[in-house]
Design brief:
The protein is mainly α. The chain is built from two helices and no strands. The longest helix has 39 residues. The radius of gyration is 22 Å and the shape is elongated.
Length: 64
């Protein structure tokens, strides 16, 4: 019975979420417009640091 309860709760949460998203669409896009640039900045910093670490490891391997 626990599996079915989880499915029912998930379906109800999905319906409520879609209804709230429709009614709060402007607020959702407002938050999204503010969050996307921050996410892109942090993602690019992580990618840059990962690339620099890989370059450092490659240079260290060539020196040996």
């Amino acid at each position: 019975m626990g599996k079915f309860l989880g499915i029912i709760i998930g379906a109800v949460a999905l319906i409520i979420g879609v209804a709230l998203l429709r009614s709060w669409w402007y607020e959702f896009t407002f938050v999204l417009r503010g969050a996307v640039p921050v996410i892109l900045i942090f993602g690019s910093i992580i990618a840059l640091l990962a690339g620099l670490a890989e370059l450092k490891d490659t240079l260290k391997a060539y020196k040996k």
